[in-house]
Amino acid sequence: MTPVTLQATGMVKSYGATRALRGVDFTVHAGSVNVLIGENGAGKSTLMRILAGVEQPDQGEMLLDGARVAFRSVRDAARQGIGIVFQELNLCPNLSVVENMFLGRSVTKGLRIDREAERALAASTFRRLKADIGLDTLVGDLRIGQQQIVEIARALVDDARILILDEPTSALSEIEVATLFEVIAELKRNGVGIVYISHRLEELMRIGDHITVMRDGAIAASAPIAAASVPWIVEQMLGENGALSPRGPKAEPGAPVLEMSRVTVRRPDGVALVDDVSLTAHGGEIVAIYGLLGAGRTELFEYLCGARLGEGAITLNGARIDGLTLAERVERRLLLVPEDRQREGLFPNLRVGGNLSLSFLSRLAPRGLLSSRAEARAVDGMIGRLGIKAPTGDTPIAALSGGNQQKVVIGRCLMRGPAAILLDEPSRGVDVGARADMFKAMRTLSADGIAILFTTSDVMEALAVGDRVVVMANGRVTADLLAADADQTLLLRAANGVPVEHDMASALASQGSR
Amino acid sequence: MTTKSPNSIGVGQPPLLAVLIRFRALIALLVVFAFFAALAPHFLSIGSLLIMAKHIAIIAVLGIGMTYVILTGGIDLSVGSIVGLAGMVAGSLVLNGLTLTSLGLVIYPSVPLVVLIAVLLGGVIGLVNGTLVTRFGVAPFIATLGMLYVARGAALLLSDGATFPNLVGSPELGNEGFETLGAGQLLGIPEPVVIVMGLAFVAAFVAARTPFGRYVYAVGGNARAALLSGVRVNRIKTAVYVISGMCAALVGILVASDLVSAHPASGETFELSAIAAVVLGGASLAGGRGTIGGTIIGACVIGTLGDGMVMMGVSEFWQMVIKGTVIVAAVILDQLQSRLGGGSDRG
User: Fold this and answer.
1) Residues near A173 by Cβ (< 8 Å), separated by ≥ 6?
2) Which of A335, B57, B192, B277 could form a disulfide with B298 if both were Cys (CB 3.0 to 4.6 A apart)?
């Protein structure tokens, strides 16, 4: 196997008005681990999708070992030695390991699938990966970590000389991560060039050889890992970050609004996604819940709003609500803005107005009939209040940008006059300008006495927007600090599972960087 | 009317083509009508127009219930069998009355009560469909397919497969007048047509102007988002099957009344005509898009096409081929509209 270098230069890619990549140069070095890091929406995934042939760039060229290449499809890229393992696994749970590995690329003898040849090839690939996985096991019966290895094996069967791993550890247990790292080391020894995307800084420092930091669709910095440090990476990721001004002095928080005690949420196989979390959010307080992907933040919110089963008491304005249905909790004015707006927040078939008023319709129809005038007034009011860029409520929802769609989902919750509002990754997929608008709106709301909880994977955002920062790692709360007492390094450590006690905060903060 | 068919937000398509596709159902109706008016003898006579109106009314009433179901992203295959069962139950009540074995008594309910009982029965069947879909997680296609067989079997069991003939009732029993519902006229208009007009008006109003209607569109557009917004999604989904079942039972009454007899095989394949009418009317089987008005036009196209071909003497076999072709062509146009209109949006 000859080591191969892949060079991409001047990559440009736009989706509608959004520029996802604005002239990116990226090199995959053979026989080494090239780590890629950046905030959500920085363009990492878009770049990888182009390298793997899922999408085609608007501009730019790629050189594979010095020869110009263009990939028309994933299959095309795979034939030329580029394999990708997506964050979301793409396996058929109802088929066996071997069947999955050769899906769409069967080894045939005449018209017949050559099972012996496939099995032999699969067995040798797993030997190479030093992985012990039964070839005839149904993929649905494997643990997530094992499924990931099957995905990697599938890429290697195609003789991948460059392998892209998009956040491979987000769903893995610690032991599974260790196994994966052994596999990566083995591949490296064989001269495979690896692109490794992750948010977990310590992980990157451990296995990376080269690091590239992306920000807002461009390369912010690139260096050998030996020359990089955690604070340097964070700095490159965030840039000047002028959009967020620190929060001014604020009034004392009011009475407890949303209280949860000993909340635990388990996966069907018993693994705790949220592990014994107790928190209180006060009226007029913004609580930032910071953590890495898979820390259990989304699951906590889903349990709080009633969209997921679990255990633990929840109290809203002094009354227990954990026995209520989701609709009853909405009735009591606890509202969730889900992370995935397209999938969980928007109604593509309704206009902006219909999207905004949905949770408020019972109030707009006192005698069972919708009053179009009252609805239009409420909708126009909310469009003005949040600065949604839509001329009227009749605008199709698809005509709005991501940030404005986000505002529509938030606006729907606000119309109901919430007591507490849960925002799951409100800045995901939202451009910098709209983000600032949104945080401004959150502050205005908290001044009205609403308890606001929001999750973020962005340290700076947690510090700048939250009054309090709660850090979660592996389902547990590892820090609960006033934003004024916290700093980036401290929060990053906590997010990687190092618990922080309140009084330890300043001590740790001073020992700072690596 | 704020939640109607999606706006075309794409730019640059030829506007004439867009308009033609947008109003394709209405245009199809005019074309079909003009075609038969020119070529089929007696197509425009009052007699044949009245018969055609009744046929259309039957498809339209089923289509109204079906529209609600399809708007939520479901389907109701059981309506044809409910037509048969409701007709048989009504026939049995008129002819044999209700036997209360414990008291050794036979009561003959009056016609309005017969109608009420049959329609409620349709609602209960719909409730079972809805419960299967929401509580037991059975796919709508399967749940209502099962009900298609069960209800048809029940209709056959009621009389051991025989017809209940001569459903005129008698003045002594106080249950006469059953036949006027389907065959009677109001101001010269057949009663089924009056019923469907009233029903269509109410249904269109509910869809466009009540919270329930908006929730139906919301559930079909994005059930998860509706749930997270506090909509009682299961309740909405159950309700649409109840509505569909009641509409089907009403059709069962109308058919039995029109023929003055109830046959257990009545209503077979009606579900397909109803679905065809909804789809021709521009609804998306994926849910969230469609209107009652569109369905009424769709029902008119199906009804006109069927009766016109009969009058022209087209063989029954060719009729099936042509109807099938029209339905598939309508869906192809629908896809074309989505492509012209929506495009793929990223956010």
Assistant:
1) A145, A271
2) B277
